[in-house]
């Protein structure tokens, strides 16, 4: 049975309810006071604050009710919680759905309920009133019930400390920023403002300070920064602590963007000059222009934080919100979120295979497995877009495993059909932290009855140099297991020749950037390629050239002694069936040419 969107929403709603720890708690006068007010406004004997649990309606507060809960099934409050909309039932006996409900059978004739909704839009339950006679609810009564329900939610937030003041910085939190911005928009709608987010340090800098000096030093940095920010803004303009090492505040009304940026740059330069951690952190500042009342508080803060991240890549570490950059960041996040589902979907990911050609014979002796993603809404997503994103996250491990499993299963299928093809698979720097990677590869080969030399592992120079000691140890283990190793994108990394000599790799793949414009025996590209091929041969490597797009480039590489090549001149990446057919056609063409000769 598939897990529906409705099921997911209900689980998220229940999680929001359970986090508040309200269910089965003692009565509270603060809630009872609101419940009594609802009863008095409607002139009805029964009222309750009803919370919608998985299978029951539990009453946090009740007037005129002896029991603490009723079954959720056919309870009107459950409908209010799931729809987050007010509900009025003027007469249970004439309502086809609720006439035979628990309340209907108990003699209830009238119901009015207003939803209890969290800040994130999750319905917890309802503030409801009930009567034993049919009646209508006037607009004034219903408006009062909605206001009282909002008071219940305010009380819930107050009692359960959604966090209005950060205990370390002493500044109001993100929740308070949200509420204050709503109030400001109500008082001054249409007024242009700038939201400012100050990001004190990169995550790795915070981690380094904590590792070297302890968490208390990080807390002191936060306190020091909050004091400096309060002093700079003055008492009339509040600052907010909105992230682990992030602060936010609003500009005065009517400021000019460029001038305010200069003012901020000068002000924070002065603050930084006296900072006790100025040499080990980099402050980044993001500005988000907006109009009060037109943009939600969450979007204002998110946009300013996005601009702060953009600021880390430019001079001066201060940036104005860019809608285009923001769209790109949101797309990246959406792709990252959706890729996890794609791994489980079974019909979105696939491998295509690009042939590797032996230049002296023209035979296809292997293929590189390339991951492809057909997104259900976006269509084909370029691997150049999604792979760099997932390599930086915990998805790197399951993605590599998916590719390994799919490639080895395809190898096994070809092997059983008598096709002797080797397949290369790329791994990333993130995979070097996996202690069981080699064991998983060996187990995969063993389960499928594959020879280890049929699988080649490709990794870039940059990936190796990210964790050189760890990489070297793992590569030696892979080589000892009989698995061929290839250095991808050769010539674009920063490894030294001394380090390359220590690698147990058999193959280097010259990056397509050096091959794309290769023509004749003149020009810098020819000299570079000739030098790299000669150097690789002297170090004992077999050479593969990537990105061959012309017959001339293939001929030049053959003369230079390059053993293998791949590129569009030979074939584009193909799915398994077309790939096999391509090999068959190529072999037949070769046989015809041989007979003709």
UniProtKB/TrEMBL annotation:
Residues 332-587 form the EAL domain. SUPFAM superfamilies: EAL domain-like (SSF141868), GAF domain-like (SSF55781), Nucleotide cyclase (SSF55073). Signal peptide: none annotated. CDD domains: EAL (cd01948). Coiled coil: none annotated. This is EAL domain-containing protein. The lineage of its organism: Bacteria, Pseudomonadati, Pseudomonadota, Alphaproteobacteria, Sphingomonadales.
């Amino acid at each position: 049975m598939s897990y529906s969107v409705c099921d997911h929403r209900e689980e998220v709603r229940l999680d929001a309810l359970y986090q508040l720890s309200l269910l089965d708690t003692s009565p509270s006068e603060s809630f009872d006071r609101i419940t009594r007010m609802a009863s008095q406004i409607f002139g009805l004997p029964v009222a309750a604050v009803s919370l919608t649990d998985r299978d029951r309606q539990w009453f946090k507060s009740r007037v005129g009710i002896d029991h603490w809960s009723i079954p959720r099934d056919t309870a009107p409050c459950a409908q209010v919680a799931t729809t987050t909309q007010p509900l009025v039932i003027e007469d249970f006996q004439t309502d086809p759905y609720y006439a035979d409900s628990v309340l209907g059978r108990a003699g209830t004739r009238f119901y009015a309920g207003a939803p209890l909704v969290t800040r994130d839009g999750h319905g917890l339950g309802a503030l409801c009133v009930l009567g034993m006679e049919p009646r209508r609810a006037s607009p004034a009564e219903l408006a009062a019930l909605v206001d009282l329900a909002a008071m219940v939610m305010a009380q819930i937030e107050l009692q359960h400390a959604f966090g209005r003041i950060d205990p370390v910085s002493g500044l109001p939190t993100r929740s308070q920023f949200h509420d204050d911005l709503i109030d400001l928009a109500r008082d001054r709608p249409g007024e242009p403002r700038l939201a400012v987010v100050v990001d004190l340090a990169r995550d790795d800098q915070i981690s380094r300070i904590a590792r070297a000096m302890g968490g208390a030093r990080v807390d002191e940095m936060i306190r020091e920064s909050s004091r400096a920010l309060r002093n700079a803004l003055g008492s009339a303009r509040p600052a907010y602590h909105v992230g682990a090492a992030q602060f936010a505040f609003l500009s005065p009304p009517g400021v000019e963007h460029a001038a305010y940026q200069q003012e901020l740059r000068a002000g924070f330069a002065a603050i930084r000059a006296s900072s006790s951690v100025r040499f080990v952190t980099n402050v980044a500042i993001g500005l988000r222009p907006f109009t009060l009342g037109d943009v939600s508080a969450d979007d204002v803060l998110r946009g300013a934080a996005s601009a702060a991240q953009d600021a880390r890549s430019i001079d001066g570490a201060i940036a104005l919100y860019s809608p285009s950059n923001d769209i790109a960041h949101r797309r990246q996040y959406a792709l990252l979120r959706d890729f996890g589902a794609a791994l489980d979907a079974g019909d979105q990911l696939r491998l295509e295979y690009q042939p590797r050609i032996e230049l002296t014979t023209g035979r296809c002796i292997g293929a590189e497995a390339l991951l492809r993603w057909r997104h259900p809404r976006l269509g084909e997503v370029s691997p150049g877009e999604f792979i760099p994103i997932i390599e930086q996250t915990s998805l790197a491990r399951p993605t590599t495993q998916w590719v390994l499993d799919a490639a080895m299963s395809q190898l096994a299928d070809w092997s059983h059909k008598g096709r002797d093809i080797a397949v290369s698979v790329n791994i990333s720097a993130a995979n070097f932290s996996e202690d069981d990677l080699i064991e998983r590869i060996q187990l995969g080969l063993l389960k499928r009855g594959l020879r280890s030399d049929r699988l080649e592992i490709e990794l870039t120079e940059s990936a190796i140099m990210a964790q050189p000691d760890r990489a070297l140890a793992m590569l030696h283990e892979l080589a000892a297991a009989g698995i061929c190793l290839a250095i991808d994108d050769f010539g674009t990394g920063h490894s030294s020749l001394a380090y390359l000599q220590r690698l147990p790799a058999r193959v280097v793949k010259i990056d397509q950037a050096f091959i794309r414009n290769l023509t004749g025996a003149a020009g810098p590209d020819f000299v570079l390629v000739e030098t790299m091929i000669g150097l690789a041969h002297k170090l004992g490597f077999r050479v593969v050239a990537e990105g061959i797009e012309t017959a001339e480039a293939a001929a030049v590489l053959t003369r230079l002694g390059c053993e293998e090549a791949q590129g569009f001149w030979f074939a584009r990446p193909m799915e398994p069936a077309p790939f096999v057919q391509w090999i068959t056609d190529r072999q037949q063409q070769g046989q015809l040419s041989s007979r003709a000769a």
